[in-house]
Amino acid sequence: MSALPALEAIEIETGPKPTHSVIWLHGLGADGNDFAPLVPAMQLPESLSVRFVFPHAPVQPVTINGGMAMRSWYDILEPTLVRREDEAGILASEQAIHTLIEHEIARGIPSEHILLAGFSQGCAMTLHTGLRFPKRLAGLIGLSGYLPLADRAAGAFHPANRDTPMFIAHGSHDPVVALERGVASKDLFLAHGYNVQWHTYPMAHSVCPEEVGDIARFMHKALSSG
User: Fold this and answer.
1) End-to-end C-alpha distance for the chain, whole angstroms
2) Using 50, 70 and 90 to split pLDDT, how confident is the model at 1?
């Protein structure tokens, strides 16, 4: 497994001397700018000084898009997403995201004050990485995605995040990542006793205002509890 280069990122701080961090992973073909405009919508209280980190995935060929190079956390090999998976790419991105989290810790943010979030492919990496990370995190937010390498995931989960709150949401008519992928991931987590909030919204592969409000409430509680 070859290591990815250090990830470049956009950073937005809601106050001086941040005490909490949110690392937000974008979807296939997007970049860190994709969710940066949502920071004001989180309406976090002034008492919470939060550093939002929006990393850019590396540019690499994506098989399902005819080999076109774009920002991607791993290769997508076929439409179901799960029959054949780019395990090497997923594990390489996991290590790069681990490095991002450890960088925040080195900057003085305790791991339990760090929340990991992601959309689509970024959701997949959030769920995969967060539950394998060996230190307690504040929470996980997974939007319109799924858990990759699910057939062997449970054995790789680390007990440090056994009770970490999880917000998982999906559009009821998502044509890109089928709702059943999100449901299967949610069911796996519940079967193993994880603390999951599950939400569906009448939308496609996107984010809607109701969902943003629910995310904001979850994020406020998770960060305030850390």
Assistant:
1) 34
2) very low
| Nearest CA-CA partner of 184 in 57, 81, 55 | 81
pLDDT digits (tens, 9 = 90+) for 156-208: 999 999 999 999 999 999 999 999 999 999 999 999 999 999 999 999 999 99
CB 34 within 8 A of CB 119: yes
pLDDT at position 3 is 56
Q: Which are the catalytic amino acids? A: 120, 174, 205
In this predicted model, what pLDDT tens digit does every residue of 37-74 receive, in sequence order? 999 999 999 889 999 999 999 999 999 999 999 999 99
Region for 91 from its dihedrals, namely left if φ exceeds 0, alpha if ψ lies in -120 to 50, beta otherwise: alpha
Please check whether residue 114 is in contact with residue 104, taking contact to mean a CB–CB distance below 8 angstroms: yes
What is the 8-class DSSP label of residue 14? Answer: S
**For the chain, which domains are there?**
9-225 (3.40.50.1820)
Token pair in block for residue 23: 């690392």
Pairing mode, strands 50-55 and 166-171: unpaired
3-state DSSP assignment of residue 226: coil
- Write the DSSP symbol of residue 165: -
Token pair belonging to 7: 């990830």
DSSP 78: S
